[in-house]
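Here is one chain, start to finish.
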Amino acid sequence: MAHQSEASAYGLEQGLRDKRRKASRIKRLLRGLVRSKTGAVGAFIVLVVCLVALLAPVLATHNPAELDPLLRLKPPMWMEGGSSAHLLGTDNLGRDIFSRIVYGSQVSLIVGLGAVLVSGAIGAVLGLVSGFYGKWLDALIMRVADSFLAIPTILLMLVVLAVVGPGLTTLIFVIGVTNWVAYARVVRGEVLSIKERDFVKAARAVGAKDGRILFRHILPNVVSSFIVISGMNVGTTIIMEASLSFLGLGIKPPDVSWGGMLSDGRQYIATSWWVATFPGIAITATVLGVIFLGDWLRDVLDPRMKTKD
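Its structure:
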């Protein structure tokens, strides 16, 4: 009984020590984020966009799909002819631009995060398998990756969307399936290095199966690189979604997309600049925030690429 109580006390103490270590690590990360100028700015922008997307029904002053031809092309509230009822003015169909930007943030985040999850999952699995087993399987996966790189990504997405048809789910799937190559190549390179280390050889020596070695010993050591690539690719994915919606092959009405808003306002840029300018600012600010935050994550998680603010 004494031995059991001692073991239980030791286990409890070890658990508390692990919790304190994790809490200390989180505090160091937060302090580092506050000290980093670009990281702090990026985190603030991303946090604001996420809050706007979550609170869209509360923040929006109008139904984003509500048409009112009598109020078409009203200027922002601070300009002559503007109204406080429409903070950023209205578009060519009388829809409130502020409300449409607020709801457009939901689509950008859903597509950005969803497509990155799809492409990351595909690329991570193929990269793990390719780097771990090598030989003909590695050659096959890398040749497939080369074939994807040989075709311009935007052209491939245009062709697929033109055949399948636009839509939110389709857009996430198409962007995800066409952007897995970067993940696969980086993960493969990490695996080629890690599988030669002593702890992997020791796991093989004690009879560990391939699946256990891959997911218990190798995968945790490539997570940091995976997070860095994912963070940087969210911004690229948001731009892709906006580009496809701008061309009419992305998000379709009544759903709201910042790229679609740009497309609606391009012919009025000389006379009603606000129709295209404000969604363009939203895209630029969001992508910059993601890039700044991703740059900070790269510095934290990849010591080989340290930069100074």
